[in-house]
What does this fold into?
Amino acid sequence: MILNQFTDLSDPALLEFVNELQGIAEKRSYKKNELAHEEGKVCDHLFFIEKGIARTFYFKDGKDITAHFATENGSITAIDSFIQRKRSKYSLEVLEDTEMLLLSYPRLQELLDQKPQYEKFVRLFLEQIYVDLAQRIENLLFYTAKERYELLIEAFPDLLQRVNLGHIASYIGISQETLSRIRGN
Amino acid sequence: MILNQFTDLSDPALLEFVNELQGIAEKRSYKKNELAHEEGKVCDHLFFIEKGIARTFYFKDGKDITAHFATENGSITAIDSFIQRKRSKYSLEVLEDTEMLLLSYPRLQELLDQKPQYEKFVRLFLEQIYVDLAQRIENLLFYTAKERYELLIEAFPDLLQRVNLGHIASYIGISQETLSRIRGN
DNA sequence: CGCCGAGTTGAACTGAATCAAGAAACGTGG
DNA sequence: CCACGTTTCTTGATTCAGTTCAACTCGGCG
It folds into this structure.
């Protein structure tokens, strides 16, 4: 549910906004390993995951690199493209059979143009993902491979059961072999 | 000048917004090594640098870590605090005698409440700094110390002349010794 | 049954950290 | 304008976390 993106639900205008979002969002189902968005295209949707799990990834020197994960109640998109309206370097892949709510950029834009009072919530959303990203930089700078792995598992306890080791390894910036060794203690 | 933060100046509403910002921003001068914001306090300002150079930094295990640099026409703040309205872990230090425009959070908020059509520009600003941050993650993941150094110097060609080696080293996540060796080819 | 993708394990290698010491630059007061 | 102390930068030796490459194991599935 889209609401879960926001922490402060006391604001009645927020509720109104979320209801409007629900109204314009479209529900879609994806089969395991299906791509909800492909690299090189402009990504027109923000995806809210109702059930399942997804990742964005790209290729760097021929290697498949996971940029983000999202699970139930989380959101994900090819953020470079969604924000900047240009071709994305990311693809968005579903790692299990997954149901998502798709929020289209043009429709969101339309809504924001009509009711600029909603911009505030988009801002809060951006602020949140910004802070998350800053945290990730700090993790990369100051934590060892093992610590980064432990932090990830803390944040997504069931990730290990749900996705390939290689995807997790590239997400935390280490090789699959190292992750395998870490896991085996 | 605040305008320089934005790429698309064709929008007349943006010009209007920038003019209003100029109106509420306050100009201040800082002496070299002065702290414009101190760790542990809530940071109430976004700083636009007219002349000079500044950095945000924090202490990690007793070490001074630079989180960001900004030079002429750039902006900087203790972003965690400015966004989330809580005590900041960053301090903001001026590295030369510096003149900045201070935009106060409460006044910005007030302006946005009055004229929500301006929210859009705040969103664009956030989107921009988000993309910058994402780029930095990629740099940390995939580039060697040397390459990260070269990328930084490309982005801020005069940084090396203006700030201590140690500040640059911590910003790109390497030790000062390594940076010294890199520089000496 | 044999293949295939995913995960594990081993050995050699390497980029960068750390520790330690010395050199250079900087600024402050006499 | 020089002398001194402090800060900044360099250089060397050693160590280590993590990579790479390669071989091997395991489980599922046609």
Helices of chain A lie at 12-24, 79-84, 105-114, 119-142, 145-155, 159-162, 165-171, 176-183.
